[in-house]
Amino acid sequence: MGLRVENNVVVVDHAMNEHLLTTAEGNPSEDTVEELRVISVFQRRFNSAKLARKRDEKVIGDNCPLIYALKGKDGLSVEFKSIKILNLSIPEIIGGIAQLLGDQLDLVASMPSSSPLAAILGRRLSRAVGRPHTSDLFTKATNAQASARVSLAIETDRKAFTREEEVALRNVLKHLSRVPQEAYTAKHVRPAIRKYFEPLAMGALPQHIQNQSRILLVDDLLATGETLKAAHKLLSTAGIQGERAGVTWFSRVKK
Q1: What is d(CA 21, CA 16) in angstroms, rounded to the nearest whole number?
Q2: What is the pLDDT along the chain (255 residues), one digit of tens a residue?
Q3: 103 beta partners
Q4: Whole-number Å distance between alpha carbons of 31 and 222
Q5: DSSP-assigned states of every residue in 45-86
Q6: Are the CB atoms for 169 and 150 separated by under 8 Å?
Q7: CA pair distance 124, 223, nearest whole angstrom
Q8: Residue 9 in contact with residue 78, Cβ under 8 Å?
């Protein structure tokens, strides 16, 4: 129930025990991001001691080679036959997620991304729970929007940050200020300081959404959880106080 990487090609191999649980056994998994319940279709795993000793293999794909391959990153790719193998388990897992969520939803909202993965998952969940789906509830923040709060904080209360944080933040802010209207992306921001940036902005609010509407937030990967936290916060700020949960394709790394 895992993956192997051969010549930069990610292969789904149920005989392996690396990177990911690739069948319905052990999936879905649950986590909590602050107070937000998050369910993941596939559970990521720590590298085994054997794989950890192979330093070159450990680096490729940042312990999530499949999502890197699906996005065409790190020079990784995945063949269609591996996707077909993986897809055999997806209906059962998503059915399990629908049961866990119950009838407590009004809208399924995918996070904005240059990759279609979150939207694909959102549509599948929408069909499973019988609720409408949107990819327009949130938009990617511009670099100027993402950095506005932390930029002000650094200038008004430097003592709120460690010296290491301040140096790292100023470096990122300098980079973002060169292209203020570009869409913000966290890929060049250290995980430890991503919490200081606002990755999202509110988009189009469907007419049927009310203050107590219950919204399912969908993303492709759970790492730091900053995108889901930002979406959760934006909805609260907009006065939408209904119960919320999150679903991702891939979980945090677990033992």
Answers
A1: 9
A2: 789 999 999 999 988 888 899 999 999 999 999 999 999 999 998 865 555 555 555 546 557 899 999 999 889 999 999 999 999 999 999 999 999 999 889 999 999 999 999 999 999 999 999 999 999 999 999 999 999 999 999 999 988 999 999 999 999 999 999 999 999 998 889 989 999 999 999 998 888 889 999 999 999 999 889 999 999 999 999 999 999 999 999 999 976
A3: none
A4: 9
A5: EPPPHHHHT-HHHHHGGGG-HHHHHHTT-TT-EE-HHHHHHH
A6: yes
A7: 22
A8: yes
With tokens 């549509």, the residue in question is 123
Does residue 137 sit in helix, strand or coil? coil
Q: Is 242 exposed, middle or buried (0-12, 13-18, 19+ CB in 10 A)?
A: middle
- Distance (Å, whole) CA 50 – CA 181: 45
On whether the CB atoms of residues 153 and 106 are closer than 8 A, the answer is no
Question: How many H helices and E strands in the chain?
Answer: 9, 11
Report how far residue 46's alpha carbon sits from residue 54's, in angstroms, rounded to the nearest whole number.
14
